[in-house]
Amino acid sequence: MTSPRDRLDQPREVRRTLLPRPSYDSESFGRLSERIARFLGTARFLVYMTVFVAVWIVWNLVAPAGMRFDPYPFIFLTLMLSLQASYAAPLILLAQNRQDDRDRVQYEQDRARNDRSIADTEYLTREIAGLRLALNEVATRDFLRSELQQMIKELEAKERPRDPFA
Questions:
Q1: What are the domain boundaries of the chain?
Q2: Phi-psi label, residue 74: left if phi above 0, alpha if psi -120 to 50, beta otherwise
Q3: Cα separations (Å) of 106 from 17, 41, 109, 116?
Q4: Residue 53 to residue 81: CA distance in whole angstroms
Q5: How far is CA 49 from CA 33, 44, 71, 74, in A?
Q6: Which of 26, 60, 97, 139 is most buried as measured by Cβ atoms within 10 A of its Cβ?
Q7: Contact yes or no for 70/77 (Cβ under 8 A)
Q8: Per-residue pLDDT tens for 117-164?
Q9: How far is C-alpha 58 from the geometric centre of its chain's CA atoms?
Q10: Measured distance CA(32)–CA(95) in Å, rounded
Q11: Keyword Transmembrane: yes or no (predicted)?
């Protein structure tokens, strides 16, 4: 007989923990992680780390034997750098995820703005086409002038006496 714990077709019960989950403001933590990630990606950070490691190594090679705290293989330095890297990597990934979210929102806003621009352009195009069609049916000032001049010429031609011998 299988226990309910082994059944895959039913959801597991929610596990209760003795310790409450820590609560924190994810937005504040995200902003802090972005600031740290931005700093980790600067030349200033590289210079600081280089100076720190150089001072550490020089101190543990040159200082009197009683004042050295990390002898030659520099195991403690390696531990410190590994610890720094283990914290830096998730902070950088968190900052990248936040940037991806911002980029996605910006992309959606740009797309919506482009859709509105296309719709506005299509509307204006239809309006201009409608105006052109309407103007073709309306007599323009130049057309009226030419028609009036032609009628004047016809009237003048009728008023002239006809030469019977012509």
A1: 26-156
A2: left
A3: 40, 24, 5, 15
A4: 9
A5: 19, 9, 19, 15
A6: 60
A7: yes
A8: 999 999 999 999 998 888 777 777 788 888 899 999 999 888 876 666
A9: 46
A10: 9
A11: yes
